[in-house]
Each structure stands twice: as structure tokens, then as C-alpha cells.
Prior knowledge:
Blueprint (H helix, E strand, L loop, with lengths): L2 H20 L31 H12 L3 H13 L3 H5 L6 E2 L6 E4 L11 E3 L5 H13 L21 H10 L14 H13 L4 H8 L6 H8 L4 H8 L1
Antiparallel strand pairs: 1-2, 2-3
Helix pairs in contact: 3-5, 3-7, 7-8
Amino acid sequence: KTPIQANRLLQLCRNVYAYAAASGLWSGTNPAVGDGAARLTRTTEQPRTRTLTDAEWKRLDAAMKADAPLWRDLFSLSLFSLQRMGAVCAMRWADLTLTGKDAAWRIPARMMKGRRAGHTVPLADLPLALDILRARRKTVPESCPWVFPALEGGGPVTSYKSAWKRILKRAKLWHEDKERRPRPHDLRRTGGERMTSAGVPLNVVTKALGDAPSSVAMVARVYAQVADTALRDAFK
Length: 236
């Protein structure tokens, strides 16, 4: 789907044939590069670090409130819970507890990246998220297992690109350059960046995101962005 994925596939093909030739399992030339000497090394990729400024979030929030409740609630929950859009789209009522001190969203392992384990979001400490979910419980039919049912088909909502584009244009955040315009996943990054800016330790932010403990270094690169004003304040 993207150039980086195409590069990974090409690299994989080259390395497979190079390994096969080195092991005596392949006697021909490497069809991906010509010969084993040209085997690629792993390339270094720079993670995307785009987050929303406070001004951008206010404009986006206003644009979402002017849109259909489905999309407003969907994108807002991604920001509040720090979870990926795929997990939010597939949210089930059966995975939610909406009352008491134990209010929580228990995300199954199959919805987490890497699928190592499930993840729990403490909704009792997220009143804005709880308000959204309780309001949706009153509007979504009791027989529907999905918090965000698709407009057609009976399953969960899966396509949100058109709604996101419409909201970005209303908020005047749309750019033809896709690297400059916000993406839905940037909501998660924004939440994580706000946590780090508030002084939350990186290992705690990593756990809040639902990433493995070994991902602390990645979280530091992506979420611990230091604003110029914060840098100046640090020196002061």
C-alpha cells in the first residue's frame, strides 16, 4: 500500500534468495538483485511523530461536533483512550463496564498490535470517554453487539476515511501533501505526547498505550517530543 512496504517486500525477497544460495538450497542467480553479494541490510526507518497542537485540536474538535455523532464519538474515543482506530471501531459492549470504580474497556488480545496480550483502559478515570459511551448505549439497539455499528451490513464500522477527510476540510486542516495533514492515528500520538508533556514517566505512557514494555525506546522517539517552549523553560 505504501512505498515503505514495497521496500520491505523487495528486501525480503532479496534476502530469502541470498540465504538460500548461501545455504546451498539455490544454485541460480538471485532474481531480486542478480547475485548474493548485493544482499541488502536492514534499513533504518524514521517513525512518524506528527501530533496535533492545541489550536489544531480545538479546530478539529469543533469540526467533529458539527459532524454526525458516530464519527465525532469514534475519533474522540481514540484520543481519550490512546487506542488505535482498529480497536475503537471493533469495540464491543461485552468488553465494557460503564459503572462504578471498575468501569473499564477490556480490549481482547486479537485487537492489540502483536497480539501478545489484551489491554485494559480504566474508564473510571476518563469521564469524557464514559459520557460518550453511556450516551451511545442509549442510542445503539440493545441487540447490537457493537458500540460503533456500520451504517449497513450489521457489523462494526470499518471505513472512516471519507468522514475524516470531511472533518479535516471543515477544520481547515486538510493538505494535499499527506505527510502534512493529520491522520486518525495522530490522535493516539497526540494523547501520548500530552501525557509525556505532563511529566508522566515513559514506562507508564507505554503501558497506557498498550505497547509491550520493550517498546519504551520507540515511545520515547514518537511521543516524547520536546516543544521549543518546554526546552526554554528547562534551561530557565
